Each structure stands twice: as structure tokens, then as C-alpha cells.
Amino acid sequence: MSNNTASSSAGANGSADSAAPRRNSKRPKYSRFTQQELPACKPILTPRWVISAFMLVSIIFVPIGIASLFASRDVVEIVDRYETACIPAQNRSDKVGYIQSSADKTCNRTLRVTKRMKQPIYVYYQLDNFYQNHRRYVKSRSDEQLRSRSGENETSSCEPEDVINGTAIVPCGLIAWSLFNDTYSFSHNNQQLQVNKKGISWKSDRDHKFGKDVFPKNFQNGSLKGGAILNTSIPLSDQEDLIVWMRTAALPTFRKLYGKIEQDLLPNDEILVTLENNYNTYSFNGKKKLVLSTTSWLGGKNDFLGIAYLIVGGLCFFLAMCFTVVYLVKPRRLGDPSYLSWNRTPGGR
Amino acid sequence: MDSKNPIESSPSIEITLNSSSRRSNSSSHSKASRGNSVREVTFGDLGSKPVRYGSRGADSEGFSGSQKEISDEDARLVYVNDPEKTNERFEFSGNSIRTGKYSILSFVPRNLFEQFHRVAYIYFLIIAVLNQLPQLAVFGRGVSILPLSFVLLVTAVKDAYEDWRRHRSDRIENNRLTWVLVNDQFQQKKWKDIRVGEIIKIHTNETLPCDMVLLSTSDSTGVAYVQTINLDGESNLKTRYAKQETLSKTPEKEKIRVLIKCEKPNRNIYGFHANMDMDGKRLSLGSSNIVLRGCELKNTAWAIGVAVYCGRETKVMLNSSGAPSKRSRLETRMNFEIIILSFFLISLCTIVSICAAVWLRRHRHDLNTIPFYRKKNFNDEDKDDYNYYGWGLEIFFTFLMSVIVFQIMIPISLYISMELVRVGQAYFMIRDTLMYDEASNSAFQCRALNINEDLGQIKFVFSDKTGTLTENKMEFQCASIWGVDYSGGKDSSVNEQVGHFVQVDGKILRPKMKVRIDPELLQLSRSGNNTEEAKRVHDFFLALAACNTIVPIAFDDASNPTVKLMDYQGESPDEQALAYAAAAYGFMLIERTSGHIVIDIQGERQRFNVLGLHEFDSDRKRMSVILGCPDKTVKVFVKGADTTMFSVIDRSLNMDIIRATEAHLHNYSSLGLRTLVIGMRELSDSEFEQWHSSFEAASTSLIGRAAMLRKVANTVEKSLRILGASAIEDKLQQGVPEAIESLRTAGIKVWVLTGDKQETAISIGYSSKLLTSKMTQIIINSNSKESSRKSLEDALRMSKKLITVSGTTHNNGGNSGGAVSPVALIIDGTSLVYILDSELEEQLFKLASKCSVVLCCRVAPLQKAGIVMLVKNRTSDMTLSIGDGANDVSMIQKADVGVGISGKEGRQAVMASDFAMGQFRFLVPLLLVHGHWNYQRMGCMILYNFYRNAVFVLVLFWYVLFTCFTLTTAINEWSSMLYSIIYTSLPTIVVGILDKDLSRRTLLKYPQLYGAEHRQESYNSKLFWLTMIDTLWQSVVIYFIPHLAYWGSTIDAPSIGDLWTLAVVILVNLHLAMDVIRWSWITHVAIWGSIVATFICVIVLDAVPTLVGYWAIFDIAKEGSFWLCLLAIVVAALLPRFVVKVLYQHFSPSDIQITREAEKFGSRREFGAVEIEMNPILEPSRR
């Protein structure tokens, strides 16, 4: 290394008068680290690198984009928006009043299958404009209470749905209180379609977050009912609707898994849905949708990723072409000293 | 660590001169700096000059004219050997010292108090406190104080460690032993138990435990030699005296009844003022009667003194203070951007609060029924509002909460990372073997840790000459004796000469330094007193050997046991050089006591009685010694500056010789040599008697002693016969011309400010290549304001003309070389007196900025600072001062960056400096290499830190827009706190310390690259705004790709939060990776390690069942869309940056870019051939 010689030469021509040997020399020890000479790779953006980087990205992205688009197209999805349709015409002027009344809110909907749907078919309910991520809302739960009976009184975070008449509500908090309570039942050719509601929640939640010894208590006993009523004899770890609901959604438009239909549906099958329209989304103009959907390796039906990948891939391909042209038309020799500023502008210092 | 020198080893004790006292000292002596050939430095040492006849107190009295009475309230009364009485009335401090700042109890409050002096910390403290309010609790309690406490803890640990080291060295220091008189016998006592008034006995080579007044010493005349290296860094011996009156007393046997009345403790290490009442007599004590704590006793078997100042009241402790703190320019710039960022922060918060206000307003009737809001607590009897304080307050709280959530927009971690990076950079600067000076065994020192990056932006270098450009190692070159020039020794090499030596006690005594010898002169000096010529030569060398204050010290040669080396210790390097020269010609000074000197003349020992010695002073500019020769004659030998010497030389005698000598002197000084004229005369008995009586009277007088002594000197220093003149070379330091050339090519203006006379300065200017023959010199020597104004105007006109002329020729020629015919301005101190601090300053600045070289000669220390301020006040350019002596202290402190040369002139400059090094030429690697790197790294790091935190905040912000503006974070709160501590901090620190855009070799080869820093290429507002736009885009990509991909899906907040966390961390690290230029294994570990560490942290956090996001990462990572999102985010976010970078590099490559490419692809021949380091700068190749 040239630096080695440099340091030694600097040392050698030190001074003549240091005849007396210096025992405690303060001379810094030489090492490649201290001299900042560690071996290193110094990548430089050469035209070849730039063009191949763009090409590489487009080669990877375009196929992924196409594959994701296909995956998304393969997903069959039936969406039925019912929050207005399920209110009798005469009540539509006062939806909130209707939903809060004790009238029978059963509603029938018919869904037509457009394409063959392979089982399992997932049944979701989708809420729009429902801010499950609202700060007041997400904080209003007590994980200690949900986990074990000993934490039953850990309700401080649950206000304003923490205690009633001095005793703790289990499960406490706004989230649990507002548990979704529309119910769906499906029939196909007058035959009941079984909806499997087991295993719709995360196993990890069932095993570790929701206790097997925690039973609902004082739930929905307040003057204002927020949603579903829980069976007090079933432990929370088996209340899967609650568990699903308690996984608060990230975005204001979200789906929650209601159940699974483990049966294939054929095109033009007509499915009759009998639903209980109990849940009040009318106070905040929330939409309610029932969704039947198959899934692919990419999840549900969403073209966005496929399109995004195609755009980025295409753009990179385009850029690769552009840069090829640029480098051909106006090449610059790398490291050419004539480009240095003090060589370019004469006399400039 | 050398336990003998705890003062030096203890990091906290540093001596800085009280600048005010220093200044008054130097200004009152400023005339001294005009002393013709006597070095400008001497005045700084006046206080320690040994004056045997008459005590040192004389000098200070000289200024006031009469002995100053110390009033009782200003005095401290010390009853010698009666510590009880001494200490009964006043609480004098004990001798134990405490340099540690903290005790165990006070550590926490005091350290916290000191740390919170930073505004940034207070900001974060306020935010942490706000977060503790239940209404505003955005984060959990623990989480919210985590970052601040982390930063505080790191600093506290660092402080505690430093303090522990201080305490340890204090303990060692306090427990050292010394002999103290107790009950009429000397007993060993610990240092910490010494009290004021006690009598202390010190043996040779022992360190003094406190400041004490000397009472008696082993020497019969009461001389003690001390080494003050711990105090002011000067390694030569200083002489201190015990009063004649106390000499005879032996404190063990007789009770001493002495009262010392001295001034209150102060910082002036060169002054001491006291009276001693003894047996009814009153004696005055001066600074030559006191020895200070930290000094070592040398060459004296023992010394007895009485402690007057102890412990923290000693002068060395009063002088201990840290380096002055300066703020880096980049940091000041950065604060501006921080203000912009806080405006961003405020506007983000305002947007959120306005949106929240609108939302609350629109839904004000539904708030009770909206399930995710539910304002009222229906379970309560009175149905209170729950956590709702009305519309206005809610908005206010929203605002505060958003400040809490977006707090890291102001990067707290930046401050701590900057400190760490600077420590790292300083480490590498200190460890740089190329900045180690073999001669003085001094490595580079970084005394200020906060202005590393300023080294990259220096535009003006103000340099001292002596000791900075030159070695301050005087070498006797040639002499003119009796009108004959002996300078033939030039060719003969020093090594061939065995040199003169003397046999003493069977050992060979040989001077330590070898001197170049003129054979002809040597011949003459050996020939005895036969001819007139030889007689003059004899007298000349006798004068050189005798007329000085050198103390000869013989020590064993380590390499050869039969040889003893003679070391001449003295205050002035000129005198040393002359003494060595005399020794080389066979006039070896071998012994000096207070009354006589022994000189070995050509092997024959002769003893001369020193009858009197007249100190050098700034008015006379000469010194003289009156010798009683063995042949019973009495002779006066005088040496001094030519201007004053010729006035006292009898011009009626030997006119031709005087003329010849004058001619020789002119020759010598035009060669850049320092000259002294030597004269002598014999005193007749009557003359001697007359002189002797008046000298005795003067030196024992109490009032106006100095003035009287001067008068006496003038009576004897007259009608001298000229002997000749000596010429001493002030050797240029190694590599100075090349260094100056490099600095100039780099676009740095080098100004030399020196106290030397004009001719010397110009000649040094030529030899250091500061001035070239191509340059037009403008010389301004004026004696009045009017003439200065006129010469300035003329000069301005001339420089304009010159520049335009050269401009046209240059255009016609199309020559791009050095271009403009440069103008050099040479101005002297007298003119500066009229120019500085007047309206002419402006003109001088205009003129100086047109000149490529400015040389100021005969300038006083304060004028040096004035010139620095002249530039500093008028430009925004960075200034650097470099110097080595006490006279440079003010200019070092005034400049943006002060560099001290740890040379021969003591450590005052080093103490005042920000960086210290051994040689001037190290300035080149310091500025061009380390400065360049530091600036580059720091600029990148600051921008990156802004970006890194802003991108995260913006991701949070976008999410807040979709949570009803309620400041929910999908990202786990722990993650958002760890983000700037663990996830992303290490890579930026590592890159900030280790990344190098160009190799050392390239930077030294093309000093022009330094211009990149002058143009602020790596940190400017354009870059800042570009980065911010890029930040905006990247945050949009990070947020919206998952947002759109997961819109209307079952995704839960913690899962998508994990995706965002990982995306932002990976992206931010890759962003940094894109800018890394050198990938060493450490960089790889830091960057990829951080990403891996983030994954691990996220996984760990999601494995805690009590957290909301339990198991989220495992759930989401199962899906393909998670990974596709990550990939898409990284590519799409970096794409614009990459494209811009490539385009920019292709179409307008920066110099750094090109040279980097050349480094990699340039032909091996071109780069391999370049020799390292100090080689002359190659002409940039050009096609």
C-alpha cells in the first residue's frame, strides 16, 4: 500500500536532533483502520450499471405485475351493499331512529354468482367510514382483562365503557361494546348454506390474548347498546366474532371475516341471504356491505399492486431506453480531468 | 500515565492565561516586538527572566514607578511557620484539590442541570412532560421518556467516566508526600494536609505542592532552578531566587518571625506582588521569588519555601479552564434549517387540528352515537362527557398531541449522533500517522470537539511566522568579525566535523548541538591572541559565550558513556544558538553560578567574574554583561539589535569596519537571517567603580528600580568598539513552501502576521514561496493616518490597474494557468495602528481582498487579532489562525478555527487553540483531507438525519389523515421511539465517521477540490429543499402503497404498522446506502445489520402478548402482498432520487465526482506515479 511508504517516509525525515531515544513516543500506531484505509468497495454509477439496474428492475417487476393482475382477476368477489336497501322505504328518513327501534330488522337479499367460486368462500362484512382506528376507540380496551380472569378489574383504559354500577364490564371498552351484530344466513336452492364460523380469528389471539377463563359479564347492560350481546357461558377465547372485531382495522374501510362457506358455487347460482340488519352505522353515514370472495396467493381482489408493478417496471424499461440513448448521443468519459471545474473555466479558482 | 505529572495528565487541568492580563502585558510590551533582531517572543517571557542583581519585582515596579502598597483588605497575611495564626482569621483554602465536577450526591442534579442547557433537550423534556398529562397521553409513560432518557443517560455515563478519572487523579495528587516543617523538624506530610504558612522543603526533581515563596536554597546565593513545563510548557529552566535576607536562616534551628503580606490569589502566572516584614525590615517580593505548584525543582539540591497559596488558590489551578467553545458554522446553518423544520412541524400540526376541528364540528350532534367516539359516559349517573372538554379545547389538545406524535421531526438523535461522529472524526485525526511530528513527539490534538467540519471551509489562513512557518530553531550561520565575512562554512557538512570537545573528569564534554563551522574562522579562533584579527575573534566568541543568561547543564550521553553532552538552557533560542556556536569554535561555557562563569577557551579553563548583567529590555534592545577577566581587566560585552547598537558604538573608531559590518548585516538580513551586533569595551578602574556604586544603588533601591537600572546600563553601554555581527538562521519548517502552495491552489488565502522586521518577513516570504518574483509587491509603511490613507488609495488604484491588465492579457493568451498576476500586500504594524479601528479598515479590506498574499510585519499581538477580526467581520468566510506563541493567543481565539503549534514557545497557543499539531505543513492534510472529509460527512449526515426523521413523521401524518385526525399511530409506539435510536442511528454514525468520498492521495493531488466546500456543495439550501421534496415523495410511496394495496381488506392496524415500520427502515437505510461511497465491512455490518436488527425488534415486539400487535408480523408476513409491497415501496421510492442522481452525474458532474471516477478508472500510470503527501502540486493535466 502506498500509504505505508508514506507514513514511514514522513517518519524518517523527522528531525535530526531527536538523537535521544524517545521511549514514550506518542506516535499513533499504524493500522489500516486508524488510517482509514480499510479495504472497501467503491461502486460508481457507470452507464452500464445504470442501464442494467433499470433493466433488472423492469425484468423483475413486469412479470410480477402481470402475475398479480392475473391473481387479482382470478378472485371472484360478490359485494352487496345493503345498509340503505335493508331499511324499509318509509323509515329511510330516520334511519337512526329505525335502527334503534325494536322493530324486526330482517332483510332478504339475493346474490348472483358471476363466476365459479371455489371453496373456501370467505364471507366478510365490509364497513365504510367506520374509524376503528379512532384514537378514543383503539385505546378503549383492556388486554389484561381479556387475557385472564385476574385482570378483570383492569378497566382504567376502558372508559367510558369500563364499569357499570361499580362492577367491571367484561369485556370492557368501546371496541367490545360496539361489536358488530348483523347476522347473515345463506341458502342456495332452498338449501341452507353452512357458514363455518370456527377458525375465523387468529389462532394466536385465541391462545394467548383471549383467556379461556374469562367470561362476559355485565356486557351491554348500559342504557345504550352498542352492538352484539355475548353469550355469558362461552369464554372469550371462543367468542371468535369478538376476537375478529377486536383486531381493530387499520383503515376506515375494512372487512371483517364473518365465516367460511366450504362449498363451491357455480355461475348463475342465486344465493338468498337472510340478514338481520341490527348494526347502527347510520349515525355516521357508514356503509355496510356483504362480501363473498375467494382468495388467491395475493389475498383478495385488488388490482392495485399489479398495476403498480407494471407501471414501475414499464417506467424502468423506458428509463433504461432513455439512458441508453443519452449515453450513446452524449457520452461522457468517466474521470476525464477536462471536466474539472478549474480546467473548464479557465483561471477560475 | 506518568504519575509524576498528574497536572499534565489530568485532563481537566489546563492552563490558559488570563487573557486580559495577558493583553495588558503584551500591549505594554508591544514595543519589544519591534526589537530588531531579538525575537518577538521575548516579551512573553519577561516575567521569568532571571535578573540576578535586583529582584524580579523591579520590572513590575518599573511600570508603576513606585512600589505599590498592598492595602490590608486586598492582602493575605502569611505568618511564616505559624499556620495556626495564619489560618485563624481567614479561611485560606487547604492544599487538597478537586478537579472533579461532581460528588456522588451532586452528580445527578448537577449533570442534569448542565445537560439541559441545550435547547433541544428542553424541547424534548417539555414534550415528554406534556405526554404525561392524561388528556394528551399519546404514548405510554415509559415509551415517551425513552429517547430523552437514553440521550441523557449516554451523556451522563460519559461525564461520569470523565469525572471518575478526574477524581482518581485528584486522589493521587492529594496523597503525594512532601517534607513539611513540624515542630522544628521536617516530616513527611500528604499534599492535601499542607496549609498556608507552613514551611516546605523540596528536593531536586520533586514537584512543588503549592505556590510558595522561596526562603533559602542549597545554593549559597539562593538560586533555584525550576522547570515550568506543566505550567506553560516551556521546557527550559527558569531561575528563582530566595531573598538574601532569608538565605542564612535555618528554620529547623531558629524561629523565623516573618510576615508575608501578599496579594489575593489571582491567575497571573507571571506576576506576584508581596512584601515581607522581617525583623522590622520590609522587603519586596516579586515573581522571581515565588515558585508555583506544578513546577519541578531542577539542578538544586533542595529549596525551602513557605506556602502562600494552596490548593485551588494556586495559580495553576486558577488557570485551569477548558478550551474556549466555538460553534461550528455548519451547526449554525443547520439551526436555520431546524427552524424551517419546526415550521413544517407546526404546519403539519395545524393541518391536523384544523381537519379535526372541521370533523368535530360536522359531527357535533352525532358524537354520542358514533360508536367509535361516544362522547358521553352513559354508565355514569350524571352522564358526564368522557374525555371531552369542548370543541376549542379538543382542538388545542389535538394540536399538542400532534406535536407529541410528530416530535421527531426535530431530530433529537442528530445532536447526539453529531457528537459521536465528531468524536470518531477526532479519533481518526488524532491517529493519523501523517500528522504526527517526530521532532517534538507530538501527535495531532483535537481540543475542541465541535468544529471539526469547519476545517473543510476555511478561506483565510492567518499564520504566525516564528515557530509556525519557521522552526524556531536558531542555527548560527555566519559571522562578520572585524569587518570580515566568515560564511564559508556553507558547503562543509556538519557531520564531518567532530566538533569541539573538552575533557572533564576523564569524560569528554561536548555540546549537544552541532554547528556548521567555517574552517577559516576555526583556524583563526584556535590561533590564539597573536594577531589583531585573532584577538578580535577571541573577543567576539568570548562575547557570544559570556553575554547571555544561558545555564549550561551537562548530562550523560545515553549512547556513549564516556561522553557528556552539554545542554544550554536558556530563554532565548538566539542565545542558545550563539552559545553553541561559541562552543563549537572552542569557547565552551561550562559553568555558571551567580557570581562567575567558567569558559573553556581552547582547552584552557578560565574563570570570569560576572560583575554585572544588564537585562535585555525593549527600549535599549540590547543586553550587556560586565566581566572581570582573569587578567584583572574589566570588560563590558554588549550584544543587541543593529538599530540601537550602532548608536552606542563609537563611530570615530574603525569607520571602515563599521561600514563593512553594516554591509554584511544588510546581506545577512536579505538572506532572511537574524542578526545581532556585538560590541565591547574595557572599563577603567574609575569607570568601573563609578558604575559599580550606581549599580549597587539601583539594584537595591525600592522605588523605580527598573528605570534606575536602565539608566545605569546606558552609562556603561556607550562608545563601544565594534566586534562584529552574528547571523542566525531561523530555519523554515519542513514542507512549508509546498504546504503554502497547496493551500493557495486550494483557494485559501494565506496571510502572514509576524512581529519581525519587514526585510526578514519578506525574505521568509520568498523562501516559503509565499511571495514569488512574479508578484507585484505593494508596500505600505506609513507614520500617520493621512499618509496611510494616501498609500491605501494609491495601492487600491494600482491593484485595480494590475488586475485589469493581467485580466486582458490573460484573456488574449487564453492561458488558464495561475492566471491573474498576483499582488502582494506588505504592511507594517505602524501603519496598522492608524488603519485598524478607523474608517480606513474598509479600504484595507478591499485592498487585501484583491491581493493574493498579505504580509503584515511588526505587528503586536492585539493587532493580529484585529486583522483577523477585520476579515471576519466583513465576510462570511471562515478564518483559521495558526500560531505557536503566547503572542498568537488572541488571534487564535478570535478566528473561527484556532490551530496551535506545539513547538518551543510553550503551550499557551496550544492551550488556547482548537486543534494543535507539531508542524505547519500538517495544515494541508488537516484542511484538505480531514477538513474535506469531515465537512462532507457532516453535511451528508445532517441532511440525511433531517430526511430520515421527516419521512417517518410524514408517514405518521398520512395515516393520521385516515384516522379522523386523532393521531393514532399504526406503528407500534415502541417502534416509533426506537426508530431513531436503534433502527436507523448506527448506519448514519458509521457513515459519518468512516465514509470517504475521495482518497487522501487524490485530495492532496488536487487541492482545488477544496473549492467544493467553499461552494458549500454538500450542504446548502438547494440540497435541503431537494431532500425535502424527495422526502415527501418517499413518504407518499411508503404510506400509500400499503394503503391502496390493503384498502378494504381485513388488515389490522398493528400488521400494516409493521409493514410501514419495516418499509420505512429499509428504505431509509437503502437511501443512505445509495450515498455511501466506500463500502468497507463496517459499513456493510452497520447498514444491513440495522435492517436485520429492525426485523428482530419488530418480531420481538410482536411476540409480547400484552401488546396490541401480538403476532401481527407473523400473520402479515405469510401473505405475498406484504413482500410485494416492501419491494414496490423500495424501488418506487428510490427511483426519482436515483434518476436525478444519474442525470446530475452525467450532465453536470461535480469535481468530486470526476476525480472519484478518475480514481477508479483513471490510468494506473497517472495515479500510481503520484508520490504521496507533500510533493509539489502537479500542474493539473489539461487537454
Automatic annotation (TrEMBL), chain A:
Pfam families (UniProt xref): CDC50 (PF03381)
Spans traversing the lipid bilayer: 49-71, 307-329
Keyword field contains Transmembrane helix: yes
Localization: Membrane
Region described as Disordered: 1-32, 141-160
Biased composition (Low complexity): 1-19
Keywords noted in UniProt: Membrane, Transmembrane, Transmembrane helix
Family: Belongs to the CDC50/LEM3 family.
Protein name in the entry: ALA-interacting subunit
Species: Hevea brasiliensis
UniProtKB/TrEMBL annotation, chain B:
Entry's localization field: Membrane
P-type ATPase C-terminal domain ranges (all copies): 910-1150
Regions that span the bilayer: 336-360, 395-416, 946-971, 977-994, 1023-1041, 1053-1073, 1085-1114, 1120-1140
InterPro entries: ATPase_P-typ_cyto_dom_N, ATPase_P-typ_P_site, ATPase_P-typ_TM_dom_sf, ATPase_P-typ_transduc_dom_A_sf, HAD-like_sf, HAD_sf, P-type_ATPase_IV, P-type_ATPase_N
Low complexity composition bias: residue spans: 18-36
Region described as Disordered: spans on this chain: 1-69
Domain P-type ATPase N-terminal per the UniProt entry, residue ranges: 78-144
Gene3D superfamilies associated with the record: Calcium-transporting ATPase, cytoplasmic domain N, Calcium-transporting ATPase, cytoplasmic transduction domain A, HAD superfamily/HAD-like
Keywords: ATP-binding, Magnesium, Membrane, Metal-binding, Nucleotide-binding, Translocase, Transmembrane, Transmembrane helix
E.C. no: 7.6.2.1
Polar residues: bias regions: 1-17
Name the record gives this protein: Phospholipid-transporting ATPase
Species in which this protein is naturally found: Hevea brasiliensis (Para rubber tree)
